Amino acid sequence: MINDIEVIDMPDGSTKVSMDLEPEMQKMLIKQGLEYIIKEMKIHEKIKVMDCNEFSEDVKTLDLSDDEYNALFHFGFISAIKNAMK
């Protein structure tokens, strides 16, 4: 599912990672990014209980911008790295 991984150390101390991912892996990382944000916001906002809402099928399919997909993908990657380090 992951091909051609390249890790480059940048002059500022950061690391640039590039890889070829199958579409299913990309979707998994985007979903994990969303889960990561939800978890972090629950901690940050000290939310203990959220009542369940019912949503129509039209609402459950959202169109995201490329920037939004990119951010969720990066958060998913960060979450995967953090989980692997535990």
Please state the structural category: alpha+beta
Helix run count? 3
Kindly estimate the percentage of residues that lie in beta strands according to DSSP.
Answer: 15-25%
Tell me the number of structural domains.
Answer: 1
Average pLDDT metric? 87
How many beta strands in the DSSP annotation? 2
CA gyration radius, whole angstroms: 16 Å
Low-confidence stretches: none
- What is the quaternary state of this protein? single chain
Shape: globular
Largest sheet: 2 strands, antiparallel
String of helices and strands: EEHHH
Distance between the termini: 23 Å
Strands of the biggest beta sheet: in what spatial order?
1-2
What level of helicity do the residues show?
Answer: 40-55%
Write the layout of secondary structure elements.
Layout: E1 2-9, E2 15-21, H1 23-44, H2 57-60, H3 66-85
Antiparallel strand pairs: 1-2
Verbal overview:
The structure is a single chain. This protein is an alpha+beta fold and 86 residues long. The chain has one domain (22-85). 53% of the residues lie in helices and 17% in strands. The protein is built from 3 helices and 2 strands. It has helices at 23-44, 57-60, 66-85; strands at 2-9, 15-21. A two-stranded antiparallel ribbon has the order 1-2. α1 (23-44) crosses α3 (66-85). The longest helix is centred in the middle third of the chain and has 22 residues, at 23-44. The two termini are 23 Å apart.
